[in-house]
Amino acid sequence: MRIGLLTDGGYPYAAGESRLWCDRLVRGLTQHEFDLFALSRSAEQEEQGWVPLPTQVGRVRTAPLWTADEDIPGTRTPKGLLARITTGGGGRSYGRRERRRFTAHFTALATAVCAAGAVGAVGEVRAAGAMVPATDGGEGASGDVVPCGRGEEGPAGLTAAGVADAQFTEGLYGLAELAREHGGLPAALRSETAVRVLEAARRAPGAGRTVQTATVPDLLAFARELDRVLRPLSLDWYDEESLGAVDLCHATSGGAAALPGLLAKRFFGVPLLVTEHGVRLRAHYLAATDTPLSAPVRALLAGFHGRLAAEVYRQAEILTPGDTHARRWQERCGAEREKLRTIYPGMESDRFTALGESGDSGPDDTLVWVGRIEPAKDLIALLHAFAQVRKAEPDARLRIIGAAAQGPEGATYLAHCLALAAQLFPDEATDAHTVGDNPVSFEDIGGAEVPGLPEAYGAGGVVVLSSVVEGFPAGLVEAMFCGRATVSTDVGAVVEVIGGTGLVVPPRNPKALADACLALLRDPERRARLGAAARARALELFTVEQNLAAYRGIYLELISHAPVRREADAVDADGGPRPFATPPEAHVLGPWTASGAGAARPAGRTPGWAAEPPAVCAGVRGAGGGDA
After folding, report:
1. Burial profile 393-431: b = 16 or more Cβ within 10 angstroms, e = fewer
2. What's the pTM?
3. Closest CA to 555 of 239, 278, 272
4. At residue 565, does pLDDT exceed 70?
5. N or C: which terminal CB in the chain sees fewer CB atoms within 10 Å?
6. What angle do CA 134, 139, 142 make, to 5 degrees?
7. Which DSSP string do the residues of 179-229 spell out, in sequence order?
8. What is the per-residue pLDDT across 136-194, written as a single tens digit (0 to 9) for each?
9. Can you state the angle between helices 379-392 and 408-424, rounded to 10 degrees?
10. CA 170, 171, 173, 177 torsion: positive or negative?
11. Nearest to 271 by CA among 237, 238, 236, 318
C-alpha cells in the first residue's frame, strides 16, 4: 500500500523530532511505499539537508512554516499591495461571495476559539500560560502539568463544548475548502476583516475572561501566529496526484502535521493514523510561558490548539501514543479509549549487547548520568544529592557525561552546574605536594575514555536520571539494554518504562535521590539482579522489531476496513463502495494495468502500467465483474 507520512519539523530533515523513529519505520516496512509530506520549522533545519532516503520512498513534498507569505512553495500568493488586500493568497481576487464565505467560516472558528473553556480539555488558567502542577499522586508526583477533564463543567458545559466543537470544525473545513478552491489563505488571515472578526468574537457572550482583555495588538499577534499554524491549508497537496493518491495518512504528531491528514480524509476519504510520542498539545502548554506573547494571545493560541487536538483525535481511526503518559493526555483531551493503542518507540539494542550480556554490574563507587545538559534534567538536585552520598561514602564518584543543549540557555546552565560542583566539591589532595582531584567530572561522549554510549553507561555501577520534566526516557531504556541498575525521578513515563526493575524517587528531592543511590552502591548483588531484570524488560518491550511489528499490523488492519476509492468497477449494485476492488497485482511493479474489464489504474501510481493481455484480466475476474 502507499503510505502518506506526515511530519512537522522532522523526517526527512537531518535534524528534527522523531527523525530516527521515522527512518526506522520506513526502512523496516519494505513492503509498503511511502510518500513524505514534511513541514519544516527553520532555515537552519533546511540548510542541514535530508537524511539518505531508502528506495521505498516514492516522493517528498515539503513546505516551510517559517517563511514570509510570498515565499511559501506550493502556494500562489499574488504580488502587490492591491492583490494582497483583495485576495486570500490565491491566483485570483476574492469576489463578494468568497469574502462572505471567508467571513462566515472565520467567524465560526474565532467564536469557538474565544469561548470560555475553549481549550476543551484544559482550563482557561492553563490556556493563559499558568501551568498548574497536579497533586493527585499520579502525574502530580512528577511535577508535570495535566489537563482538566472535559466533564468538569457539568452537563451545561458539555453542551456548550459540543456547540463550540461544531463551530470549530465548520470554520476549519470551510476555510480549507475556500483555500483549496482559491489558492490559499495567508493574506485573508492577516486582513482587516480577520481582525474585526476576532474583535467581535472576543467581545461575544461566553468568551473567556482572559480573552476578553485582548487588545488590537494582541489580536494582530494572534492572527500572525494563526496564519503560520494554518499554512498547511494553503498548500497544493490536496489533489488526486498527491494526498489523494495514498491509501493511508500517517501523521507522526498532532497539531500542524495532522492538518493535511484531516483534509485528505475530508476531501478523499483517506483513513488517518496519528502517532504521538510526545503530545503536541502538552508541548505547546509547556512552551507557552517561555514566549514573549501576552496572556490573551497565549489563551487564544491554547484555545485553538486544544480544539484542533480534539478534532484530530475525533477523526483519526487509530491513535498510537508512545507511552501511557501520552495516552492519559490524549484521553483527557477527548480521545476515545477504543481508538488508543500504546506502542513504545523502538530503539536499537544491538550496540549494547556486549555490555548487557557481560554480567558486569559496574564500579561499586561510581554514579553516572548520561544525557543533554539542560534545566529540565535538574543536575542541580543531582549535585546536592551527591553531596549527601559523599558524606556517607567518601570514595564515591559522579560522572556527568553529555553536552550542553544548543543555545545560550544550555551553555548558561552548564556553567551554573560547573560552578556549583566546584563549590560543593573543592579539589581534594592527599597532601600539600599532590594535585587535587574533584569527585565530580563533566565529560563528552567521543573522547578517549568515553568513545560511545555503551562506554558511557558502563562507566558507573548505577545510572541516575534526575529530570523534572520527561516524556519517554530514551536514555533510561539504553541503560536497561546495558543491564544497569537505575535510580530515576518519577516524571513522564519513567515508572511505566522501569516497571519495577529500578528505584524511583520523587523529583526535586535530593535526600530521596541520595538514599536510593546509596542503597544500590552498597549492594552489588541487588544491582546485578535489577540490571538483569531491566535488560530483559527492555528487550521485550522497547526494541525496533516490536515497534515495526505493531505498525505492520495496524497498517493492514486499517486498509482492510477502508473501501477502495475508485469509480465504476469499485461500486456495487446499490452504488456503495466495494471492498477489495483493487486486484492484488495492481500493487506489483510491472506491466499490469486495467483492461476494458474494469481494473483501472490507481490514482497517482507511477507510469509503467502497460497494456495487460485481456486473457489475464478475464482469468482473475468473476462473472459478476468482481475479483475471483
Report:
1. eeebbbbbbbebbeeeebeebbeebeebbeeebeeeeee
2. 0.78
3. 272
4. no
5. C
6. 95
7. HHHHS--HHHHTSHHHHHHHHHHHHSTTB-HHHHT--HHHHHHHHHHHHHH
8. 333 333 444 444 444 444 444 445 677 888 999 999 999 999 999 887 887 888 889 99
9. 20
10. positive
11. 318
All residues at 6 or more sequence positions from 338 whose CB lies less than 8 Å from its CB, including other chains? none
Task: Please give, one letter per residue, the 3-state secondary structure of 220-274.
Answer: HHHHHHHHHHCHHHHCCCCCCCCHHHCCEEEECCCHHHHHHHHHHHHHHCCCEEE
CA distances from residue 91 to 78, 84, 88, 243, 555 in whole angstroms, order as listed: 6, 11, 9, 21, 38
Tell me the C-alpha distance between 336 and 274, whole Å. Answer: 13
> What does the pLDDT look like over 412-470, one tens digit per residue?
999 999 999 999 998 765 555 555 578 999 999 987 789 999 999 999 999 999 999 88
The predicted-structure confidence for 354-394, as pLDDT tens digits, reads as follows 999 988 888 889 999 999 999 999 999 999 999 999 999 99
Q: Which long-range contacts (CB under 8 A, 24 or more apart) does 384-388 make?
A: 384/424, 384/510, 385/466, 385/510, 385/511, 385/513, 385/514, 385/517, 386/424, 386/439, 386/440, 386/514, 386/517, 387/424, 387/425, 387/510, 388/510, 388/511, 388/514
Measuring CA to CA, which residue among 318, 230, 308 is closest to residue 276?
318
Burial of 146 (0-12, 13-18, 19+ CB in 10 A): buried
CA distances from 519 to 387, 475, 498, 514, 527 (A): 15, 22, 17, 9, 9
CA of 402: how far to CAs of 211, 377, 457, 480, in Å?
43, 12, 11, 18
Rounded to 10 degrees, the C-alpha dihedral 127/129/133/138 comes to: 40
The count of other CB atoms within 10 Å of the CB of residue 73 is: 11
- Residue 245 buriedness (CB in 10 A; 0-12 / 13-18 / 19+): buried
Cell of 490: 518519577
Q: Which amino acid is at 61?
A: R
For residue 103, the SS3 value is helix
- The C-alpha atoms of residue 391 and residue 151 are separated, in whole angstroms, by 51
Sign of the torsion formed by the C-alpha atoms of 115, 120, 123 and 128: negative
Who's near 328: CB < 8 A, 6+ residues apart?
139, 146
pLDDT band at 70 (very low <50, low <70, confident <90, very high): very low
* Angle, in degrees to the nearest 10, between helices 280-288 and 295-315: 180
* DSSP-derived pairing of the beta strands 318-321 and 366-370: unpaired
The SS3 call for residue 170 is: helix
- Name 469's Cβ contacts closer than 8 Å, sequence gap at least 6: 143, 144, 286, 376, 491, 492
Q: State how far the Cα of 621 lies from the Cα of 628, in Å rounded to an integer.
A: 5
Inter-residue contact 2 to 57 (CB < 8 Å): no
**Would you state the cell numbers that stand for residue 461, as one nine-digit string?**
555501577
Distance of CA 120 to the CA centre of its chain: 20
- Nearest by Cα to 371 from 319, 431, 342, 413: 413
Mean pLDDT throughout 525-548?
Answer: 96
Burial of 227 (0-12, 13-18, 19+ CB in 10 A): buried
Q: Which three cell numbers stand for residue 194?
A: 480577520
Q: Other CB atoms closer than 10 Å to residue 508's CB: what's the count? A: 15
- Amino acid 121 reads A
- In Å, the largest CA–CA distance within the chain is 100
